[in-house]
Amino acid sequence: MKKVNIHITLKEGVLDPQGKAVQDSLNTLGYQEVKGVRVGKFMELEVEDGVDVDKQVSEICEKLLANPVIEDYEYKVVEEVIQ
Amino acid sequence: MKKVNIHITLKEGVLDPQGKAVQDSLNTLGYQEVKGVRVGKFMELEVEDGVDVDKQVSEICEKLLANPVIEDYEYKVVEEVIQ
Q1: What whole-number distance in Å separates Cα of residue B51 and Cα of residue B11?
Q2: Domain-by-domain residue ranges, chain B?
């Protein structure tokens, strides 16, 4: 079993209303030093051995987890989970 | 300006219905090799210089961004953004 960490972030230039809301809230609550917030997704996948992890995970990200029009994804195989 | 990456994940043992839904969908769509999915949040903060980044960011995470009852957070100061 392999563990894969996936980061999905909005492409640069794409407006991030969720991040803006978080930033505004932080500023209002007294954290004026926060000058920018971008919110993304983080997923941890466990993938069975015996498959081409790179191929499968990039296909999953491209087709299903990320919206390639507005989002970028990045993944990293982080550990072999011993069963 | 400093850039800080924050990961917020559910604590181990806490049920993740969103992750379960993603996993079920992936399995249904033909990716049976995916045996587990956990979904978390990923945030990129830009913090002004001249403040104690560690103190501020851990306070922000603890009080506002994460729910310490069910979530863990981790942050890393990744780069000095040159203005």
Answers
A1: 29
A2: 2-80
Taking the CA of residue A69 and the nearest CA in chain B, the distance in Å comes to: 19
Residue of A nearest to B33 (CA): A48
**Which CATH class, in words, describes the domain spanning A2-80?**
alpha beta
The DSSP secondary structure of A17-51, one letter per residue, reads: HHHHHHHHHHHHTT-TTEEEEEEEEEEEEEE-TTS
Both tokens of B62, joined, read 């603890």
CA end-to-end span of chain B, whole Å? 7
**pTM (predicted TM-score):** 0.89
Regarding an ipTM greater than 0.90, the answer is no
**For residue range A7-21, what is the model confidence (pLDDT) as tens digits?**
999 999 999 999 999
Chain A residue with minimum CA distance to B34: A47
Distance from CA of A70 to the nearest CA of B (A): 16
